[in-house]
Amino acid sequence: MRHLPPIHSRPIRRRILGALVTALLCAGGLAAPAAADSAPDTVTPKADNGLALTPPMGFNNWNSTHCRADFNEAMVEGIADIFVDKGLKAAGYQYVNLDDCWALPQRNADGKLVPDPVRFPNGIKAVADYVHAKGLKLGIYTSAGTRTCDTTGLPGALGHEVSDARQFADWGVDYLKYDNCNNQGVDAVQRYTAMRDALAATGRPIVYSICEWGSNKPWEWAGDIGNLWRTTGDISDNWSSMLSIIKQNLPLAAAAGPGHWNDPDMLEVGNGGMTATEYRTHFSMWSVMAAPLLIGTDLRKASDETYGIVTNKEVIAVDQDPLGKQGTVLSSDGGRWVVAKEMRDGSRAVALFNESDSPQRISTTAAAAGLPKAAAYTERDLWQHRTYSTAGTLSATVPAHGTVLLRVASDREWAKYPPAVDTGISGPLLAEAGKVIGVTTTVTDLGSLPALRVSASLTGPAGWTVKAVSGASAPAVPAGESLRTSWQLTAPPGTPAGAYGLELTSAYHSPGGEHVSSGQSVPVHVVVAPPPGSPYLSDLPAVSSANGWGPVEKDTSNGEQQPGDGKPITIGGTVYAKGLGVHAPSAVEYYTGGACSRVSAQVGVDDEKGAEGTVTFEIWADGRKAASTGVLTNAMPAQPLSADVSGARTVRLVVTDGGDGNDSDHADWAGARLSC
Annotated catalytic, 657? Predict the structure, then answer.
């Protein structure tokens, strides 16, 4: 994230401050947003401008280029070419959006914005003409402040709304992203309303994207002003950031609908910081949340896998459904999320989303998703592109950080499809080299008809021993029943600690003779028992780690995005030689193997962000919260935190934001150690 200054919502003081700043702006010769440079009195402000009746789809350069020199006219026009050549236009993408750094730092003598002549030698109108000739639309960026967010300090639109909107319209701009930097404390509603009215006055249809980071709860007021509004701070290309944004955006479903959408920020798909499984979750959850789909990767370098994700037309159809409903949460126990979205044709899109670090069986029913009672239903797996029948149970064993996205309908012709089958694995997927562990696989018939000639297989990496110790096949599995197989597996002695893959496959035939098989990779971790005594956690290998900004750092603060860029861990002026530097939201898991009794640390917000940052710390043992702090701020000294973890196989150190977003939430587990 860009670590932007937080804006706090204090309605009475905000109105007073807005009036004072307006007076100061006028006194300094800078027009107040609602007065000078104002829209004609004949314009009737309208939230319903007839635009964005489905969530906007397109591209924004920020996540891939930021303000680097390769953000220029040739790059933007090349993206338009790629939209056509790579099938993105055919899939529904239409907006090619410029972010910050397209303008010179100073306006001209007439107060007009000036495109950077090095980046855009032919001007913005020429780029718009090129994009329009491809049957696409052009978007542009500015801020509802005196300057934009880039440190160069490019001109913002505060006090220049009508003039800037007129320029955008004259250039042929179709979409405006309006940021929140350098806003001088002027009331958010006032600032964003001023630009709404200025855009309306141009007479040109321009989609209006409000980017105020969710600071003033725009979902409560922006539906009367813009077509979409950011609900959170900036996304980062990592699992923790994406997960945090999902959790913030999901509760806001009631605010979304045709022409007015919750915007959880651009897509990171393809930028390299997450796995393919996590990127499919990213795209699935944005679609079930009816979010704008703005590609943020460099399409000039994108892989076939990335294109395969962002052009999945069945998933896009969920996002673009004209009914315009955002999915709602049916359950989320233990990080096993079920989110259902009503579709115009009466079907339901159902996301089975696993936030945990191990495979989980996630289940719901067609009735819980809102479908009427029926003899059976069809379910379409939107990533497998295959249709099954189900008696009403919607269930899948979902890989760690994965999402199964189904489209479920009441269908009288359900019997012509094979029964849905859930293939899963349970047991401790943590193995010490040379020691046997036991796991169980299940193949469960979810349909109304039996699955025939059912089999399961499990294989491990080269050199591993994998042995079935009970039956791995059956002539038939009746509806609602399972084939259960027990397995023993052993990693060879000397296998290095780390993550490895097991391959789990099931196969069966439908009563009509159709052969169905599916496979999945199941992660198993080779772990090392901690040494006796009081080892520091920073000296031990983590089973898994997730961090809200950059990597988890050992024996330094979190720093920024690059590995090893932290500073000495410092809380309240006290420096600590050992510990973990993290950024909320964060989770770091360690294997303890039942041999340790306690985790202890001094915890707090690191001094490297000055007075900013609010976090909470938690210690979990085998999925049970064992200890936690309240909200800690940078003004507080380090706090002692310890927990009894006797008998636990794993411990997890968790940091969450303090309830106000995770900007600048640099947190330290100073001196974190085990007692074993």
Answer: no
Question: What does DSSP assign to residue 304?
Answer: H
Report the C-alpha gap between 337 and 351 in whole angstroms: 8
Catalytic residue among 100, 164, 179, 237: 179
Q: How far apart are CA 90 and CA 175, in angstroms?
A: 20
Exactly one of 100, 187, 234, 357 is catalytic; name it: 234
- Sheet of 465-468: strands edge to edge? 421-426, 436-445, 482-490, 465-468
The pair of structure tokens assigned to 405 is 């996205």
Return the number of other C-beta atoms located less than 10 Å from residue 85's C-beta. 9
pTM: 0.84
**Residue 555 is among the residues annotated as catalytic for this protein:** no
Tokens representing 316?
Answer: 């896009």
Residue 190: Cβ within 10 Å count: 18
Strand 482-490 with 436-445, pairing: antiparallel
Q: For 205-239, what is each residue's pLDDT tens digit?
A: 999 999 999 999 999 999 999 999 999 999 989 89
Which class for 55: exposed (0-12), middle (13-18), buried (19 or more C-beta within 10 A)? buried
pLDDT of amino acid 593:
94
Res. 185 pLDDT band, cuts 50 70 90: very high
In 3D space, the residue among 382, 383, 458, 451 whose CA is nearest the CA of residue 422 turns out to be 451
Q: Give the bridge partners for 57, in sequence order.
A: 293
